[in-house]
């Protein structure tokens, strides 16, 4: 059996884990949540809930991963000492694989729109039209390209693949966002967007919908519940202080989400100034795929020749954001197949990548029936329930002295720290209740 990989540096781990957390949802979901829920008031609540809810669950995954030095299936089996733990790991394995299947389709659209900016430069109008018109052929082709890119990185292993590319992709992603923020902020209408984003409406802070939305955004934006952080945690060196590493990941994830808002909301108001409709029939800001594939391309079209360059940079940003998340998703099943089944890493990666591609193809060919269904089953039902079960394992099943012993690796005074005085009871009592309430409200 091959030796397990390990992150070679703290920075490598933080950028890889933050990259896993920073996905398309941060960039197209968070900004419109902010603008629709009281501006900076939502940001304020989101930051608080990210540390009150998401950070404790993140720490549970990192601690379980590093303590067991295992994939999700074996890790939960070890700390529970039962088949229930292993079954939960398999559930996570299946969930993250299904998420990767639909996520790869969306990421494929990003690649198609990125290439369309290049074909526009050369006046290839027919090719540009094909790239931006939805079809099963286009979706399957670019989904396959995206999965190929993901698998190519994951075959390199932890330090040679995931870490190596994360320390390149994440700084590139942040640099592109900052440059686009600077450019967009100089355009007419941007100041109205900044007002919508930055000025708080504190009268809405205790609004139940705002709290639920902020809670959901905090939990899901950190890639929790599906084993990605658990597996990454299993690759952390024993001498590292886990609670500070976890805090660093949370801060980078929050920071990128806030930066995305500083780009997207002013850009939407620039689009409004340029005659593009940014509000839905109900008066809410347009969000999701309509924002990315309708509103923003319409804005780029109004910018003339410079709009092509801005569009190219924007969709490059979206592809990078998708890629930093997808490599962590693929690593979850790969770690299990390599460690538990003894399959050689390269074979495991390409075999699983091909399986995910087949599932993506089935979704693409039955798009109306399956796409929304798979998203709902995985992100609305399965992911929060997995997060709930992980809290139960960390708080109720895993022996407290074993948890402390793991935390003391790299942090000898852990027993007397503020973290240890709060986290065990918090993840035991508070997190499960809050996650359950959030889950119930989302489906009720």
From TrEMBL:
Subcellular location(s) per record: Membrane
Pfam families: SNF
Domain of life assignment: Bacteria
Keywords in alphabetical order: Membrane, Transmembrane, Transmembrane helix, Transport
Transmembrane segments: 12-31, 43-64, 90-115, 135-158, 165-184, 210-233, 245-272, 306-327, 348-375, 381-398, 425-443
Membrane topology annotation: Multi-pass membrane protein
UniProt name for this protein: Sodium-dependent transporter
Organism: Fluctibacter corallii
């Amino acid at each position: 059996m091959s030796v397990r990989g390990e992150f070679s540096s703290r920075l490598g781990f933080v950028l890889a884990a933050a990259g896993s957390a920073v996905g398309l949802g941060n960039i197209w979901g968070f900004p419109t949540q902010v603008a629709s829920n009281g501006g900076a008031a939502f940001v304020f609540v989101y930051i608080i809930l990210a540390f009150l809810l998401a950070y404790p669950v993140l720490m549970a995954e990192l601690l379980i991963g590093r303590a067991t030095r295992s994939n999700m299936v074996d890790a939960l089996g070890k700390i529970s000492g039962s088949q229930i733990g292993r079954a939960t790991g398999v559930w996570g394995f299946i969930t993250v694989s299904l998420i990767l299947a639909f996520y790869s389709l969306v990421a494929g659209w990003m690649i198609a729109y990125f290439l369309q900016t290049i074909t526009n430069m050369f006046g290839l109008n027919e090719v540009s039209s094909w790239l931006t018109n939805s079809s099963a052929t286009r979706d399957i082709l670019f989904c396959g390209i995206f999965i190929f890119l993901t698998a190519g990185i994951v075959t390199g292993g932890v330090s040679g693949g995931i870490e190596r590319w994360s320390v390149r992709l994440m700084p590139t992603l942040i640099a592109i966002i900052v440059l686009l923020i600077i450019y967009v902020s100089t355009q007419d209408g941007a100041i109205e967007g900044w007002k919508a984003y930055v000025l708080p409406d504190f009268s809405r802070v205790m609004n139940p919908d705002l709290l639920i939305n902020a809670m959901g955004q905090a939990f899901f934006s950190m890639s929790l519940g599906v084993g990605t952080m658990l597996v990454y945690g299993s690759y952390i060196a024993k001498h590292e202080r886990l609670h500070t590493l976890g805090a660093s990941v949370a801060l980078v994830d929050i920071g990128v989400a806030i930066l995305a808002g500083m780009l997207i909301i002013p850009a939407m108001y620039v689009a409004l100034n340029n005659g593009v409709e940014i509000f839905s029939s109900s008066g809410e800001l347009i969000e999701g795929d309509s924002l990315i594939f309708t509103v923003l391309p319409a804005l780029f079209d109004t910018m003339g020749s410079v709009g092509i360059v801005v569009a190219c940079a924007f969709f490059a940003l979206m592809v990078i954001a998708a890629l930093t998340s997808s490599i962590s998703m693929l690593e979850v099943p790969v770690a299990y197949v390599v460690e538990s089944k003894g399959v050689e890493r390269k074979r495991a990666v390409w075999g699983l990548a091909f399986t995910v591609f087949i599932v993506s193809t089935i979704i693409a060919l039955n798009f109306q029936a399956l796409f929304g269904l798979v998203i709902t089953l995985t992100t609305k039902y399965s992911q929060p329930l997995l997060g709930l079960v992980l809290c139960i394992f960390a708080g109720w099943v895993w022996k407290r002295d074993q948890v402390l012993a793991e935390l003391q690796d790299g942090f000898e005074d852990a027993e007397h720290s503020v973290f240890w005085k709060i986290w065990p009871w918090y993840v035991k009592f508070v997190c499960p209740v809050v996650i359950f309430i959030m889950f119930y409200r989302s489906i009720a």
